[in-house]
Batch of 2 targets.
Target 1
Amino acid sequence: MTISASMYRRADQVAFTVNAHLPEEYQAEILTEQLRAAKEVLAPRGLARRKVLVVGGAGYIGSVLTGKLLDAGYQVRCSDLLLYRNGVTVTPYLNHADYQFMKGDLADPAHLEKAFDGITDVVILAGLVGDPITKKYPEASGRINDDGILRLIDACNGRRLNRVIFVSTCSNYGLIPEDATADENFELTPLSLYAKSKVAAEQKLMALKGKVDYQPTVLRFATAFGLSPRMRFDLTVGEFTRAMFRAEDLLVYDAHTWRPYCHLKDFSEVIRRVIEAPPERVAFEVFNAGGDVNNATKQTIVDTIKAFLPAAPVRYQAHGADPRNYRVNFAKIKRVLHFEPAMTVRDGVAELLGALNQGLFSDVEVNKPFYGNYELAYP
Ligand SMILES: NC(=O)c1ccc[n+]([C@@H]2O[C@H](COP(=O)([O-])OP(=O)(O)OC[C@H]3O[C@@H](n4cnc5c(N)ncnc54)[C@H](O)[C@@H]3O)[C@@H](O)[C@H]2O)c1
């Protein structure tokens, strides 16, 4: 199909712009999909624009995604329990006409009812994120990551939601053979409580075909890096870069182990791509989210940082506590959504060093619970 000027005009009426870097035929598909959504999702509700509920929108990824969605013309409602006293991350958005914040627990059905009101699409980011925090708070993890998320999945039904995106993790692959790369059909071997809950939620979602009135998409995210209003320094790229910048005695466990990484801006783009894709490309689909270019060992990350900070001291040790080792195949997201990351690990390191050089993040030691998932402010 060719893209006609009238399609642009009609798409403009729903405040929509298409990414001009995408292949022309795919741009046309996206525009057609926006016209369908305008007719079938917006018109019956009397809405002019889509309103996206971002559950966990005040976190490391969510507070960057929010800006991306607002810039793209979406209305955003953030539901978040502010478990890390991270309310400051939403303050810049509070006076944006298209933004609304609702503090609340995803495990609280009364909160969910209010949060869902008038919503067209949902992105589920919230939960206790990471192996250490779920291990430290197993009860809260069960209440939120298991019971709460499973109930939230149920609560999505009956609302004629346009997209329901569940953000999962490549940690689900656990430990895979040295010479293998995990595509979406690769066997899942979740090693932690955190990943086991994600796998259970994925399985529940994928078994809903024909039973619910929405069509979910699962995104298995690589490990995140990049600047955010809620910086996390408990993730490899951020942790290593800051430690080496401060010339701390960085101890790296199992330097040869592989993981995929992805910048927050790229994750935000992935979510936008799913929100805007035709349903036949994303309905009941699982995607590894990231790009082959950012599959890296911890040694590669250290070497990347060393290129900026050659004198930084680093020590190595084998047999650390975290046995995860997985190289991931990102062919599907490239083929189906034309997604490839714009940012490399090197870009992320340079960006963070720029901020550190300006004296930012000098309060990490005194404000530790904000800067990583170490400690919950859980009611
Ligand atoms: N950061 C990564 O490297 C990474 C990698 C793979 C997948 N993911 C996934 O991406 C998502 C977001 O990760 P993040 O790094 O932004 O984590 P984060 O911990 O920074 O953000 C999570 C947010 O969820 C909120 N939250 C937690 N429990 C809640 C509840 N019961 N009700 C409402 N809000 C609640 C927290 O307050 C926090 O703001 C998670 O689903 C995570 O599993 C992250």
Target 2
Amino acid sequence: MSQTLYQRLGESEGIARIVDDVMAAHLANPLVKTRFENIKDLERAKRMAREFFGAGSGGPAPYTGKDMVAAHKGMNISEQEYLAATDDILGAMDKNHCDAQTKNDVLAILYSLKGHIIRV
Ligand code: HEM
């Protein structure tokens, strides 16, 4: 495989499109929508998500947000919500024509983060 995950996600432009679609999916998903409706600064949250996916997939720009435990501490996020959010991300990747290998790579990263997000 010659391209990095960051390149396969479409670099910063592709990641920005995916993040927009992920946020729209969260806001339409009955299992998680209230969590995201309650965010005070949605633009900042999307910027942090773009940075996180960019840096985490091998992109050149740093992630400047909170670590995953700090970002989700006290929210009491359930396994069901975690799975719903993961499905939203994979759905947004489908919409943006990411291939199966790219989705599997992102899924593996998301799965590795679950202990930092669920009921922390
Ligand atoms: C699937 C893996 C997940 C990843 C990679 C992720 C990533 C992030 C990132 C990067 C931030 C920004 C941190 C900052 O503000 O500095 C964030 C914030 C947030 N996350 Fe997650 N998250 C995940 C799952 C979830 C789930 C399952 C929920 C709830 C259903 C959730 C709810 C939130 C909320 C509400 C905030 C915003 C806090 C605020 O700005 O007020 N996240 N997340």
